[in-house]
Amino acid sequence: MERQSALTIFESLSAGVRLDVFRLLVKQGLAGMVAGEIASTLDIAPNNLSFHLKALAHAKLVTVSQEGRFLRYRANLPLMLELIGYLTDECCAGNPNECLDLRVAPACAPTAKTPKTIRK
Questions:
Q1: What is the tally of structural domains in the chain?
Q2: Phi, psi at 97, each rounded to 5°
Q3: This prediction's pTM
């Protein structure tokens, strides 16, 4: 993945509604959802959703297919995985296997506690 492609993806996801839509579609996997289902699930007006879906499609984050009168949207999972790969390729000086342990580590490492002094 090229830097400009990553920037386009991040710019598209920087809108909260788009991030919510993309995460919902990722959750649905290959089944995807029709626009009306997305709108009702996320409580978004259909015309507003249409604007955001168009932006996600332009960034290639979603694919769309016609099903009769409906449009079915699916998250572009290969692109998502490519972006993750782009972000982690040089993790730990090019040794991403070292980073695997970090996924199970607590979000905040325990801090060293200094012993309290006892006052008499």
A1: 1
A2: -60, -30
A3: 0.78
